[in-house]
Write a structure and sequence with these properties.
Helix content is about 65%, strand content about 0%. It is mainly alpha-helical. Helix 1 (about 10-30) packs parallel to helix 5 (about 125-145) and helix 6 packs antiparallel against helix 7 (about 205-220).
């Protein structure tokens, strides 16, 4: 019998502390020197690009309720983990922007209110947090270590990523309609408590989520304002 996950439990809080400590460790390692930066980048690339395949294996091996949502890479954080891996490899501006905005606006919330049903020490639990912290680590790593900056003028960057977010949402809703899945939580709220529970009933919470996304994206440009004005 699998161990159930309890949000805001001691194991959840300990996992979050360990995860953010690891994020800080990657950033410090990246700033330490060229050899250290290469090693830290390589590990982060591997973690992001291998996370979803490992998640599939973990869910296949565990004796717990599962669905197509666990085996198709169509949650936003699944898309973001591949985006982050290729952003670190290629330094393509669009991929870096997606990683930064999606990682800090969406994946952060997924860490605080995880949509997962099994707890530690089950492998899906471990892989879930490794995947999500790898995205967040990349989101911090790209601007702090690699020197990435949003495109100028700054007001355009959030709108560009929001546009891609809308495209993703339309795709997720189409897949949900065809396969009875719940990607992007566009069909119903997650089973565990989350911010979505406070945004109103379906489908109105989808509208509120769009407004919040734009607000968060613009807030995330604030650290770059002074640098862009110099």
């Amino acid at each position: 019998m699998t161990h159930p996950f309890h949000p805001f439990s001691q194991e959840h809080l300990i996992t979050v502390v360990i995860g953010f400590t690891a994020v800080a460790g990657f950033v410090l390692a990246g700033k330490k020197g060229e050899d250290s930066r290469k090693r830290a980048t390589a590990v982060l690339v591997f973690m992001n690009l291998s996370a979803f395949p490992l998640s599939m294996l973990a869910w296949a091996a565990v004796d717990a309720p599962k669905s197509l949502d666990n085996f198709l890479p169509f949650q936003l954080c699944d898309v973001a983990t591949f985006t982050a891996g290729f952003a670190l490899l290629t330094k393509r501006p669009l991929l870096c922007a997606m990683t930064y905005f999606w990682g800090l606006a969406a994946t952060m919330q997924a860490l605080l209110t995880p949509a997962i049903t099994v707890g530690f020490p089950e492998m899906p639990y471990i892989v879930f947090f490794v995947q999500h912290f790898a995205i967040v680590a990349a989101a911090f790593y790209l601007p702090i270590v690699e020197g990435w900056r949003p495109r100028q003028p700054l007001w355009k960057a959030p709108l560009e990523i929001y546009g891609w977010s809308v495209i993703y949402l339309i795709f997720a809703m189409t897949v949900n309609k065809l396969l009875s899945t719940n990607f992007a939580f566009a069909s119903r709220p997650p089973d565990n408590p989350s911010l979505i529970d406070h945004l109103g009933p379906w489908p109105w919470y989808l509208v509120v989520m769009q407004i919040l996304a734009v607000m968060l994206f613009y807030l995330l440009t604030l650290p770059f304002i002074k640098r862009s004005e110099k």
